[in-house]
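Lab notebook page, bench 4
Experiment: in silico fold of construct C2
Operator: M.H.
Input chain length: 312 residues
Purpose: comparison with the prior construct
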Amino acid sequence: MNLKGRSFLTLKDFTAEEILYFIDLAADLKAKKKQGITGKSLQGKNIALIFEKPSTRTRCAFTVGCIDEGAHPEYLGKNDIQLGHKESVEDTARVLGRMFDGIEYRGFAQETVEKLAKFSGVPVWNGLTDSDHPTQILADFLTIKEQFGKLAGLKLVFVGDGRNNMANSLMIGAAKIGIHFTILAPKNLWPEEELVSTCKEYAKESGSIIEISENLDAIEDADIVYTDVWCSMGEEDQAASRIELLRSYQVNTNLMNMTKKESTILLHCLPAVKGNEVTEEVFEAHAEVIFDEAENRMHTIKAVMVATLGNN
């Protein structure tokens, strides 16, 4: 499959086959790394890593992924370049595109990563925006496939803030590849209806069932329960009201028991605020798979770079 030169901004841009290709490539690269085998597909490439928001997993995953495949990563923090301040995003993109072979962006507006892709002339990869987090979804799906041996037909329930970037991105990815997907959230934290409609169109092709519910019973039969922080970056001032609103949606032992499946796993994109969205007891019971998921950020991000920029 030829994805050379493509940007990776949202899973909306990719077919089910292409998404599964990224996951299979990541699994292959992971197996090789476990054997001490790294590649040279990015040898001679220079990669710009733009971070307007702080990061643990995304920054480390891109950095190690670059080095494993022979590339040079250059970290550009919000105070290192003029992006959108003294210089427009368009002009910054045109400069970076002449000096770098690929660009990662982690920040606020989806529009910014789209402009970088439009004006740089090189592959651009979305490391997170306020509305989308596509590299995280690849890591989640690789983890799920490792646990269950398949993806299509499983039931994934996202519990918490149903309009954040994780809920959005999981819904897009699940609808594309045939995972049944439920958002479990209070009504005023449901996703935008336009996105739900778009995903239901994807689901017609894949056989996925998309549901939005405020009823805790919707978690029954879940193979995967997924949660995230109740306050995303930049929303800290809403913490008190959000905690009050989501208290009954905490992933605790009672809620996990409501799946009525002993095989149900918990995923969390991290960092976790234990005691809020998930109890420490439940988190620790599923810690091994959660930290597999964290490690898989590196393997899936490496796969995205190799597929869209690699020499072989």
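Observations: Residues 162 and 246 are 11 Å apart (CA to CA). The first helix runs from residue 16 to 34.
Next step: discuss at group meeting.
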